[in-house]
Write a structure and sequence with these properties.
It contains 6 helices and 9 strands. The protein is α/β, with parallel strands linked by helices. The chain has a single domain, classed as Glutaredoxin (3-Layer(aba) Sandwich), CATH 3.40.30.10. The strands form 3 sheets. The protein has a 5-stranded mixed sheet with strand order 5-4-3-7-8. It has a two-stranded antiparallel sheet with strand order 1-2. It has a two-stranded antiparallel sheet with strand order 6-9.
């Protein structure tokens, strides 16, 4: 009992340390949000109620993100999801004053150059969405079910390295989660430890 409370307290403390309010909890409703995508269109999570939604935190300057895009792994995972009717939202929470910030047009061009096929790429310059979800790394992945409940939070896969050669021996947790969820099964591994580059949030 005491250990569980301590673990929960430590987890909340870690999220606070990362500048993220511990609002997103697997098994609970996913935090609502509305933001503008790279094309200037307003995107709201509520628009996709009734569908499975994947959230992917992205930063093109991160070697771990490059691992999954340069190899084609992230675009392939996006395509596998979207062809099954899943909504995929890539989210950039990188602060405008960070050295690797990409403005909307640049980020959109980069995504196209990597053959990325997200439903939309959302600009979260002020970090409100990232903080609401407790996103800490790029990539950091979340899966939301059609009822709006968060059913997965964590890593893209089971090999926490920046080496693309490790992808072939990794378990892709997003594919695994969607496979189970779309088949009406319980998600067998709802949380994993996300890995990647720390998100460079705006101050405040």
């Amino acid at each position: 009992m005491h250990a569980a409370i301590l673990t929960s307290t430590l987890a909340a403390g870690l999220l606070t340390a990362f500048g993220a309010a511990a609002q997103a909890v697997v098994g609970q409703p996913a935090p609502a949000f509305s933001a503008v995508d790279t094309s200037g269109k307003t995107v709201s999570l509520a628009d996709y109620k009734g569908k499975h939604v994947v959230l992917e935190w992205v930063n093109p300057g991160c070697p771990f993100v490059q691992k999954h895009y340069n190899s084609g792994n992230m675009p392939a995972t996006q395509k596998a999801a979207t062809t099954q009717g899943v909504t995929w939202l890539s989210v950039s929470s990188t602060a405008k004053d960070a050295s690797d910030y990409r403005p909307p047009s640049d980020l959109a061009a980069w995504m196209r150059s990597k053959d990325g096929v997200p439903t939309a790429t959302v600009m979260d310059d002020d970090g409100k969405i990232g903080r609401a979800y407790g996103a800490r790394t790029t990539p950091h992945m979340y899966v939301i079910d059609p009822a709006g409940k968060l059913v997965y939070a964590g890593a893209i896969d089971s090999r926490p390295t920046s080496n693309a050669a490790d992808i072939k021996t990794a378990t892709n947790y997003v594919n695994q989660t969607l496979g189970e969820a779309l088949a009406g099964k319980a998600v067998s591994q709802p949380t994993t430890r996300a890995y990647g580059c720390s998100i460079k949030y705006a101050d405040g």
